[in-house]
Amino acid sequence: MTAPIIELDQLTKKYDDQYAVDHLSLTINKGEIFGLLGPNGAGKSTTILMMLGLSEPSAGSVKVCGINSTSQPLDVKQRVGYLPDDLGFYDHMTGFENLLYTASLNGIDRKTAEERAFHLLEKVGLLDAANKKSGKYSRGMRQRLGLADVLIKKPEVIILDEPTLGIDPEGVRELLQLIKHLNKSEGITVLLSSHHLHQVQQVCDRVGIFVKGKLLADGNVEELARKLFFEDLFVIDVKADLINQPLIDHINEISGVNRVEQISAMELAIYGESDITAEVAKTIIHANVGLRYIQKRIYGLDEIYHRYFEGADHSAKNTRT
Ligand SMILES: Nc1ncnc2c1ncn2[C@@H]1O[C@H](COP(=O)(O)OP(=O)(O)OP(=O)(O)O)[C@@H](O)[C@H]1O
């Protein structure tokens, strides 16, 4: 059963006559890792601030854990952990002390705070650095400490704004694995804002593509590909010994094939609305033509993202839902 945990209904933020967030409706379910993906200025941070009750909507509503963020921001704050892109720590204090300080701000008693801080430092791989001053932590270590920091109050939802910014590839991999692990082991819902396509693709169950304050599409990567590339969802690349017109005609007759493009004397690209790989292979073999290579092209988030951003308005109009 899916239960909504973040609910945006026609959420809008207008600065002067410009929409930062434009009538945004979106539901994120409990236990999901949702990626809010968009370029600079798309409205991701403004949306997050409204979810946290730190910015007042011009219109529409936002609920987190069933609570209206605008009218009850403190209740939302208790249940939501927010990691901004650059969380400040007290550099003269150790990682452990910083966590205890956050715990005290959240009204957690000292004994519980110490237990949780140790447990979390272990979880994020910082136990060895627990007594090191946070000012001496690397960027990756600070982000891991940031995760421990948002988790100390046992939130139901964590919101991470560009969590991997400035971290080296190995650190990114570790941080993303950690987020995925926390999501699975603790059942925490994660909202991750990013413009790193590949990273989002690795961890998110669902992604929303956000441009100029509007959500252009949401879904898992396969669903997004289907919405965007519905005419030619499947592309099969073929290399064969003898490509002639009769063979192309045969391939064109296969149900599900939209068109066949001859790339060179031995190469074809076949566009279809269903997975026609097996039928194409059979047809070539039946025609007694040597099949050298056949491969289905998979659309990744990269293609999806660029296709949206190359012509956002055009793509939005052509999107089939
Ligand atoms: N306080 C403000 N006053 C006026 N305009 C603002 C304010 N905050 C944000 N904006 C505008 O709202 C739009 C959305 O900004 P926002 O910071 O939400 O985007 P973003 O997707 O988070 O971008 P980034 O990835 O760069 O953080 C931008 O055009 C920005 O200039």
Q: Characteristics of this structure?
A:
321 residues, alpha/beta, Rossmann fold, Alpha-Beta Plaits, 2 domains, 6-stranded mixed sheet, 4-stranded antiparallel sheet, 12 helices, 14 strands, 38% helix, 29% strand, disordered C terminus, binds adenosine-5'-triphosphate, ABC_transporter-like_ATP-bd, ATP binding, P-loop_NTPase
Topology, element by element:
Blueprint: E1 4-15, E2 18-29, E3 33-37, H1 44-51, E4 59-64, E5 67-68, H2 73-79, E6 80-83, H3 95-105, H4 110-123, H5 139-151, E7 157-161, H6 169-186, E8 189-194, H7 197-203, E9 206-211, E10 214-219, H8 221-228, E11 234-240, H9 245-253, E12 257-264, E13 267-272, H10 277-286, E14 291-297, H11 301-310, H12 312-318
Parallel strand pairs: 3-8, 3-9, 6-7, 7-8
Antiparallel strand pairs: 1-2, 1-4, 4-5, 9-10, 11-13, 11-14, 12-13
The structure holds adenosine-5'-triphosphate (ATP).
The site of adenosine-5'-triphosphate has 10 residues, from helix 1.
Structural notes for this entry:
Keywords: ATP-binding, Nucleotide-binding, Transport. One of its GO terms (molecular function) is ATP binding. Belongs to the ABC transporter superfamily. This is ABC transporter ATP-binding protein. Residues 6-237 form the ABC transporter domain. The chain folds into two domains: 4-226, Rossmann fold, CATH 3.40.50.300; 230-297, 2-Layer Sandwich (Alpha-Beta Plaits). It starts with a strand and ends with a helix. It is an alpha/beta fold and 321 residues long. It is elongated, with a radius of gyration of 24 Å. The protein is built from twelve helices and 14 strands. Helix 4 (110-123) crosses helix 5, helix 8 crosses helix 11 and helix 11 (301-310) packs across helix 12 (312-318). The strands form three sheets. The chain has a six-stranded mixed sheet with strand order 6-7-8-3-9-10, sandwiched between helices. Bound molecules: adenosine-5'-triphosphate (ATP). Residues 15, 20, 38, 40-46 line the site of adenosine-5'-triphosphate (ATP).
